[in-house]
Specification:
131 residues, alpha+beta
């Protein structure tokens, strides 16, 4: 797996939906943020799929050509006004064995657009990139 830097920020714009954390681990939220971010990515001509829950937060699948990147959205420290976003790609065993592309270009493309979406959103405050 290859991961982007983490993006941390504050916002009260992403309301928690009743029962949202029943599809993730307890007190992990981010469905509204992931839905908003998917819309932003589509508006910038990226092919963002339907948002879905994982144990660790909410995921936006993004296709970049034949490559797939996942954008993870989750709250921080059980708070509902602090958020974390990151992107990752998974390489399978066969890809590594055959020395196929590590998907760095696709990961970078999505991360740059995600960061720009957050940087330009008036509802996002204090955006910090953690390398």
């Amino acid at each position: 797996m290859k991961q982007s830097p983490l993006l941390h920020f504050e916002s009260t714009a992403f309301a928690i939906r009743p029962g949202e954390d029943e599809r993730t681990n307890p007190k992990l939220y981010g469905e509204a943020l992931a839905t908003w971010l998917a819309e932003q990515l589509r508006g910038r001509d990226l092919h963002a799929g339907e948002v879905f829950a994982e144990d660790f937060g909410w995921c936006v699948p993004v296709a970049v050509g034949p490559k797939g990147v996942h954008v993870i959205c989750v709250n921080e420290d059980e708070r509902t006004d602090r958020w974390q976003v990151s992107c990752f790609v998974e390489r399978g065993f066969v890809d590594a064995l055959l020395r196929r592309s590590d998907d760095t270009d696709a990961l970078t493309t999505v991360f740059v657009v995600v960061k720009d979406c957050l940087s330009n959103a008036p509802e996002v405050r204090g955006l910090i990139e953690e390398v």
